[in-house]
Amino acid sequence: MESDKIKGVVIITLPPPDNPSLGKSITAFTLTDDFSEPPRESVVVGQEEQEPNRNHLTLPLDLPIQTPSNQRSIPLSRELFAGTPRKLVVLLSIALVAIYLYSSSFPETLQELRSSEKNDDDRRTSLLFPLYFQSELGDSSDFQLKLGRTKGLNKDDLSAAFNDVLGVPKPTKLISSTLKSDSSAVFPVRGDIYPDGLYYTYIMVGEPPRPYFLDIDTGSDLTWVQCDAPCTSCGKGRSPLYKPKRENVVSFKDSLCMEVQRNYNGDQCATCHQCDYEIQYADQSSSLGVLVKDEFTLKFSNGSLTKLNAIFGCAYDQQGVLLNTLSKTDGILGLSRAKVSLPSQLASQGIINNVVGHCLTGDPASGGYMFLGDDFVPQWGMAWVAMLDSPSIDFYQTKVVRIDYGSSPLSFDTWGSNRGRVVFDSGSSYTYFTKEAYSQLVASLEELSAFGLIVQDSSDIICWRTESSIRSVKDVKQFFKPLTLQFESRFWIVSTKLEIPPENYLVINKEGNVCLGILDGSQVHDGSTTILGDNALRGKLVVYDNVNNRIGWTSSDCHNPRRMKRLPLF
Predict the structure, then answer these.
(1) Listed residues 317, 341, 372: the one ending a domain
(2) 3-state DSSP call for residue 110?
(3) Contact (Cβ atoms closer than 8 angstroms) between residue 481 and residue 499
(4) What is the DSSP string of 246-297?
(5) Can you tell me the distance from the alpha carbon of 535 to that of 192, in angstroms, rounded to the nearest whole number?
(6) Closest by alpha carbon to 411, among 421, 397, 401, 422?
(7) pTM for this prediction
(8) Same-domain status, 337 and 399
(9) Whose CA is closest to 337, among 126, 127, 546?
(10) In terms of residue numbers, what domain contains 522?
(11) First to last CA, the chain
(12) Is 276 in the same domain as 405?
């Protein structure tokens, strides 16, 4: 009968005879037919599985029914977890302290873990570009130094116009004005340090899509291609000139036009029909043009293609060394932090996360690759430093606290906020030190005369010769020492360093001499900033993470990019 079923059990334990003051211990159990799971659920008794029997109570085999005479009886739950709460609290406290310390030191890692909860198919993917190699010989004076600056416009000259294929006026003159800030104007990558002095990739522009080969430049804001508008002064170029249509022209009222012309001190031109710009580079080259908008065809790392509209420069007047380097390229791919740069435009449209990376091979006959997005950023093994954040500076900057040649430190000659600033610039062929650091490096290299290396006079680059012709850097690199840059870190215990081996900062010229790829930067930029060019960045995967405001690098052969899997959040 239903009334005969056992509804519960009460266990009463009497105190020991020798100590009746301990009192009785009462433990009660109740049985119920309510199940949150399906009723055919097995319970474990000892090591065997048995079907539950509701007609009797099954107790754990190690449950003490009677306590020893010298101990007080305790309830069932306290008996099972005796001593555990204290240990658990200690372990949890240690874990919480460890998590707090780790999150304080590496907040970006926790953010990466949180973001990994999204399905790989739902999150933004990356664009991969090959970098191409230039094999033709050139003159040693053709090496590049970018760090472009947009110049102020003279509004009085904007009304002096002439007709062109666009049917809109162009300024006949642009002049410099006091700059408010330093602004700079996976893909396969090709190029070299010497003799060509640049690395480049290609993008597909227009409809139908046509390839344009562009110099990758983390020190420039604006992407531009040589164009027929018509062209006043253009280099030979690799592809036919880009020919825009009237509907491609960007209005001067566009927000990105205002971004490009932000260094202009004056009122907007009320009679303008387009957005004009001029970029002045640190090597005194310049590019003049008008902003246009056209369709870019891009291939993602997962193989899918996308078409999107992007704003770039239609450059119809190039001057200076820039003309000489436009023999294998058609323009510049601006990769800086500025809003007008290509990665920033893609990120603003929700296409990628604003992360830029490049990997330049140490092999002089290879190029490497470049990517936009964060799919190819390694989860482990990267050396990260904080990016200097300033609303008026779009360069990828950080701060160095020490530079060593071998074990000998090189001094800085600047003080204050600019002391120790370092710019990562893939648009510069060589690396530039401050005047004092450069002078000390040259003085340290005087010891090379003991090894038979004779200094050759040169106005631009210091070179050495030997009695026999030097075929490669490998023949002489044992006489030189590595350069090591030590960066600021949050904790003095952790030292973040970037090493530049001799094979990176040395080049062999066509006369068979070995030359120093570190130059005097006293006349470059503000004269107090170290600029790391392509030669210092070879053999490394370098990442500019604009989401977490950090710059990172790790050694790599730069041949095969690997897409990184996200760690699950646990």
Answers:
(1) 372
(2) helix
(3) no
(4) GGGBPPTTSHHHHHHTTT--SPPPTT--S-EEEEE-TTS-EEEEEEEEEEEE
(5) 9
(6) 401
(7) 0.72
(8) no
(9) 546
(10) 383-555
(11) 51
(12) no
Kindly give, in sequence order, each residue whose CB lies less than 8 Å from that of residue 430, ignoring residues fewer than 6 positions away.
143, 145, 193, 517, 518, 519, 533, 534, 535
Count of CB atoms situated within 10 Å of the CB of 405: 20
Tell me which residue has tokens 């372990």. 91
Residue 212 lies in a domain: yes
Distance between CA atoms of 349 and 254, rounded to whole angstroms? 16
Residue 17 lies in a domain: no
Do 484 and 528 have their domain in common? yes
Alpha carbon separation from 391 to 401, 424, 430 (Å, rounded): 23, 18, 27
Residue 390, token pair as written in the block: 């300033």
Which is it for the CA torsion 368, 321, 213, 425, positive or negative?
positive
- Assess contact for 558 and 368: CB atoms under 8 A: yes
**Is residue 321 left, alpha or beta, with left meaning phi > 0 and alpha meaning psi from -120 to 50?**
alpha
Between strands 48-50 and 43-45, the pairing is antiparallel
CA of residue 483 relative to chain centroid, distance:
22
Confidence of residue 393 (pLDDT cuts 50, 70, 90): confident
By CB neighbour count within 10 A (0-12 exposed, 13-18 middle, 19+ buried), where does 475 fall?
middle
The answer to whether residue 23 is domain-embedded is: no
Give the separation between CA 551 and CA 544, rounded to whole angstroms: 5
Residue partners of 270: CB distance under 8 A and separation at least 6: none
Dihedral sign of CA atoms 469, 442, 556, 558 in order: negative
Q: At what angle do helices 84-105 and 107-115 cross, to 10 degrees?
A: 100
Measure Cα distances from 486 to 389, 400, 496, 506, 545 in Å.
Answer: 19, 6, 6, 21, 20
Q: What is the CATH number of the domain that holds 319?
A: 2.40.70.10
pLDDT for 180 equals 28
Burial class (CB in 10 A: 0-12, 13-18, 19+), 22: middle
Domain endpoint, select from 343, 372, 401: 372
Q: To which residue do tokens 């490049």 refer?
A: 358
| Catalytic residue list | 217, 425
pLDDT band at 563 (very low <50, low <70, confident <90, very high): confident
Q: Is 509 a domain residue?
A: yes
**Strand ordering across the sheet containing 506-508:** 454-456, 463-465, 514-516, 506-508
Q: Give residue-wise pLDDT tens across range 295-324.
A: 999 988 877 888 999 999 999 999 998 888
Peptide bond into 409 cis (omega under 30): no
What gap in Å lies between CA 404 and CA 486, rounded to an integer?
Answer: 8
- The Cα 465–Cα 469 span in angstroms is 7
The domain total for the chain is 2
Cα(52)–Cα(56) distance, integer angstroms: 9
Long-range contacts of 18-21 (CB under 8 A, 24+ apart): 18/69, 19/69
Lowest mean pLDDT among 149-153, 243-247, 366-370: 149-153
Pairwise CA distance, residues 452 & 469, whole Å? 12
What distance in Å separates the CA atoms of residue 439 and residue 459, rounded to the nearest whole number?
15
Specify whether 331 is located in the same domain as 435: no
Residue 550 to residue 397: CA distance in whole angstroms: 9
Token pair belonging to 305: 């293609």
